[in-house]
TrEMBL record:
Pfam families the UniProt entry points to: Polysacc_synt
Places the protein is found: Cell membrane
Chain ranges passing through the membrane: 21-39, 45-64, 91-114, 256-277, 308-329, 349-373, 380-401, 407-429
Main location: membrane
Signal peptide extent: none
Keywords: Cell membrane, Membrane, Transmembrane, Transmembrane helix
Record's GO cellular component terms: plasma membrane
UniProt topology in membrane: Multi-pass membrane protein
InterPro entries: Poly_Biosynth_Transport, Polysacc_synth
Source taxonomy: Bacteria, Pseudomonadati, Pseudomonadota, Alphaproteobacteria, Sphingomonadales
Protein's UniProt name: O-antigen/teichoic acid export membrane protein
Amino acid sequence: MKRWFADGVFRTIVRNAAYLATGKLGGALLGLLALALAGRGMSPAMFGTLILIHSYANGVGAVIKFQTWQFIVRYGAPALERGDIATLRDVTGFAFGLDLASGLLGMVCGLAVLPCVSDWFGLGADHLGLAMLYCTLIPTMTAATPTGILRVFDRFDQIAWQQLVTPLVRGIGATISYVADLGFTGFVLTWYLADLSGDLCLWAMSVRELRRREVKGALKPGLFRPARKLPRAWSFVWTTNAAHSIWAAWGPVSNLIVGALLSPVAAGLFKIAATFFDSASKPAELMSRSFYPEIMRLDPSSRHPWQLAVRSALISGAIAIVVLLLVMVGGEPVIALTFGKRYVEAYDLLQLMTLSLVMAMAAFPLESLLYMAGRERSALVAEGTAALGYAVLLFVAIHAYGLWGAGLAYVAGVCLKTLFMLVPTALAYRNRNNLTHETHVAVPA
């Protein structure tokens, strides 16, 4: 371990992950407070309906969203290192144009489709207006340009502070809604304002950082003109969009399917279990956000980035074992204390889902390694195949075992994703001598 931390890149990965962990820890506690107050302030059916409204907007955003932050890191980081501000402006302008176009398209589609599917999801006519209001958040939900800007400038400390905004506003609003007995409408508006506040804060931080660096015109949106200057730009954004849209929709779409096949109450229980699982796996997500920008600066034909991946995976897996033990011991009393005894059923589901926790956390470097090696399409195939298998298993298992089946399908989906990502990553490592540094930093001077 001492030799590992002698590596400056590895120290940077851990340091940036620590920054993000600081914000996420506080955000997780505040978010849990908001969920607890919502669970206690409404009936299980109304709580489930709130989750369905939030999941629908998130699901539409996840499907339509381009991973522009990855595009900015891949093309913008090497441009910034060599002082090519003109290329950096093209990169951020192209990313902003994609965010703007996809966000508006997603909002229009979400609003148009919602009245047709609301009954299937269990959203009655009484709640349709609030659900349509929530869809107006899709443009800000889908924008990843400000995150990419802060990451390429290595401002993970700013991202850590921003991660507190949404849960803080949500916690304050949930407290007011609970104490003042504002009911379902109060909690929906709280969730709406919290999401909007967090998104706007992220934009404000990125704009301030651009001004501090004196990078002018970086947020002038464009699509075709800047793309002509960036090799394989369209190929990269379409591939990463498809891959992440498939898997990012996992959580929201799962909630919608559970709600449609079972009930809003079941959707609420599934959401509670999934929230605890996501919180438990946050260390891996934070390591991934720090890991990706650093290895994109390294030569994929060398052993260095691959060694970093193994070391990071081992640390993440070790953390997962500790977290797993804590969940098994303290999960039930925490859920009972936080949400009330009527939601304790979610703990049984959480126990089942955490069986895949170690695998999910230890496998986090796989996707970043594929992008580094120029194997974006392999990542897309892996994500798509695993998500398709998960969807089929979700429908079959729910019909066979009810809510318990949803947990079984979740575990199987994590295992499928890990397996399908591991195979092309191992092949890329075996053929690493054929890779060049230009594979992932091919930006014209």
